[in-house]
Specification:
The chain has 213 residues and is an alpha+beta fold. The protein has 5 helices and 11 strands; from the N terminus they run E-E-H-H-E-H-E-E-E-E-E-E-E-E-H-H. 23% of the residues lie in helices and 32% in strands. A hairpin with a 2-residue loop joins strand 1 and strand 2.
């Protein structure tokens, strides 16, 4: 059975919105705990911890935190099912996943993920909770030489799947609570690269996210 994808247009390319069926409140708690007590449980998904440890406050990695293995497993199971449902099995796999901890008054700077993963690739942002005035995700695209800002109003449990090349940011956390999100990247398998190379008619769902020249 083909999985339905809720696509949203950003000036010629799309991002898609999904819901993860997991216990969102427990994810929020575990991400906070992973920052406060990093050695309490195993954490094999190490993600650029040195930037935080060295106090590089002007780098977007500053807000990132490594996740416990059991937290990654909770998210990875429905995430793999989602990706396999869209692209087929053994096409893309998640090689990075990390938590974001954004304190009141802080924000996520404009960035993309193309330095992290080879092209073709996809990225995701997952929102286990939504805070009033916490800030939505904003995508930035170029339309006829002019920058276009495209906000997405997040909902609790949202998972946004998008091109690893697209610029995005989250504005200031205007709430009095800590904002928690989780991001990650997908890289292609050799099977997927071969599939795209042979896709002369451009029918693979991947082209919705990156466009096809």
């Amino acid at each position: 059975m083909e999985k339905q994808v809720n696509l949203n247009l950003i000036t010629g390319i799309f991002y898609s919105e999904h819901q993860l069926n997991i216990e969102h409140d427990s994810i929020v708690k575990e991400v906070k705990e992973s920052r406060e007590f990093p050695d309490k449980y195993p954490s094999d998904f190490s993600f650029r911890g040195k930037y935080y440890e060295e106090g590089e406050v002007h780098h977007t990695f500053y807000e990132d935190t490594n996740l416990y293995n059991h937290t990654v497993k909770k998210i990875m199971t429905p995430l793999k099912e989602l990706i396999d449902g869209i692209f087929g099995e053994d096409m893309l796999f998640c090689n990075e996943m990390w938590g974001h901890i954004v304190y009141p008054g802080d924000q996520t700077m404009v960035h993309d993920h193309r330095q992290n993963i080879p092209i073709p690739g996809l990225s995701f942002a997952y929102y286990p909770h939504v805070l009033e005035n916490g800030g939505n995700i904003h995508f930035i695209t170029d339309v006829n030489g002019k920058k276009c800002n495209c906000p997405h109003v997040i909902k609790k449990g949202d998972l946004i799947l998008f091109s690893n090349e697209i610029l995005h940011y989250t504005p200031r956390n205007g709430s009095d609570e800590t904002r928690i999100t989780i991001s990650g990247n997908f890289i292609p398998t050799d099977k997927f690269l071969k599939t795209l190379q042979e896709d002369e008619e451009g029918i693979n769902p991947y082209w919705y996210y990156h466009g096809k020249i």
